[in-house]
Every structure is written in structure tokens, then in C-alpha cells.
Specification:
By secondary structure, the chain is an alpha+beta fold. Helices cover about 40% and strands about 20% of the residues. The chain is built from 8 helices and 8 strands; from the N terminus they run αβαβααβααβαβββαβ. It has helices at about 1-10, 30-40, 55-60, 60-70, 85-95, 100-115, 130-135, 175-185; strands spanning about 20-25, 45-50, 75-80, 120-125, 135-140, 145-150, 160-165, 190. The N and C termini lie far apart (about 65 Å).
Length: about 190
């Protein structure tokens, strides 16, 4: 009886077993973790942050990595906020930083444009009705792992918390966040080439 309690106090056995690690700030997660997640993904990379800007600056040769991923058959998707949208303007006023939300989105669009059309690479803007839900929660999926950032009030993404999840079964935290991102994607609008 005592052994069972000692083990369950130290080993995740319930719903929290999908939580690998949490970080008080997204920026506290080492860039090597992000690089490994992208590098290890074989089937699906789905980046549904509002700007996704930090990938281009945090992961060395990120564009080359994406090119290799798509060439090997990995599906790569980017869900972005609309740089001209009302929610983007509102978020810029809230954040009040020099590197604006619309600028960060445009930098991602420019980097995607330099990649050229790649089989397996898709990009969409979230629908205007979904923008508030998109800007407040970033879900970055890499096969059966995800990084989730719930954006806090007036903070920029890198100052908000981060959860690292690994899928362990149906209906867990991983699935709930992945379904949120898929719902936003399903109503998203294609980014013009």
C-alpha cells in the first residue's frame, strides 16, 4: 500500500502524463528543443501561432529544414493571423512594441515566399471570426508532441507560459489543443502565393 502511494506520487499516471514539461516563459525553452521537435517530426508539423516569427530566428537553417521535411513527405502547415485584420491592430496596441504583430506576420510570409511553392507546405490566415481565439492561444504540433502557449493579457508570446505535451491517448490535453488548432485551420483562408 505504501509502495503504491510512493510510486504514484512520483510517476505521472493520470491526465497529466501528457505534460512533459512546463516553462514559465516560452523564451525559457531552449532553441535546441524546438530544433529537435522540428527535426524529429516525420508526418506533421503544424505551426498555429499568430505570427510564427520566432521559428525563423530561433532554429538555425529553419527554411532548409522545412524544405527537407516536405521533400521527405512531412506535411507542414502555417496558420497565421491576418496582418491587415482588426484583431492584429488591437493586439499591436496592447503589446505596444516596436516589432509589431503585423510586421512579425509579414516576416513569416516573406520567409515562406522565399521557400517557393513546395509540395506539402500550406499556409492560411485564420478567419476574422476566429482571430481572437487564435491570437490568445498558440499550438505548435510536431507529430505526437505539441508546444502550447496561452498568451497572457498584455504579454508578447515569448513572455507567456509554454506547455510541452506528448499524446498518450484519445481525449487528452494533446488532442484538445490539436483539435482547437484544426478547427481554426478548417475555417482559415488560403494565403495568396
Amino acid at each position: 500500500m505504501l509502495w503504491t502511494t510512493a510510486v504514484t506520487d512520483r510517476i505521472k499516471t493520470g491526465n497529466d502524463r501528457e505534460l512533459i514539461r512546463s516553462y514559465p516563459y516560452r523564451s525559457a525553452c531552449p532553441s535546441t528543443v524546438w530544433g529537435e521537435l522540428v527535426g524529429d517530426a516525420t508526418e506533421e508539423i503544424f505551426l498555429s501561432g499568430y505570427t510564427n516569427y520566432f521559428f525563423w530566428t530561433s532554429i538555425p537553417a529553419f527554411a532548409d529544414m522545412l524544405r527537407r521535411k516536405t521533400e521527405s513527405g512531412c506535411r507542414v502547415r502555417f496558420l497565421l493571423g491576418d496582418p491587415e485584420g482588426e484583431v492584429t491592430r488591437q493586439r499591436e496596441a496592447i503589446e505596444d512594441v516596436a516589432l509589431t504583430v503585423s510586421t512579425r506576420i509579414r516576416m513569416t510570409l516573406e520567409a515562406l515566399g522565399r521557400l517557393g511553392p513546395l509540395e506539402g507546405l500550406e499556409a492560411r490566415f485564420s478567419a476574422s471570426d476566429d482571430a481572437v481565439n487564435h491570437v490568445s492561444l498558440s499550438v505548435f504540433r510536431f507529430d505526437d508532441q505539441a508546444m502550447v502557449t496561452p498568451h497572457l493579457a498584455r504579454l508578447v508570446g515569448h513572455d507567456s507560459p509554454l506547455l510541452h505535451l506528448r499524446r498518450h491517448g484519445d481525449g487528452g490535453m494533446f488532442d484538445r489543443f490539436a483539435e482547437h488548432a484544426e478547427e481554426l485551420w478548417s475555417r482559415g483562408l488560403p494565403v495568396a502565393d
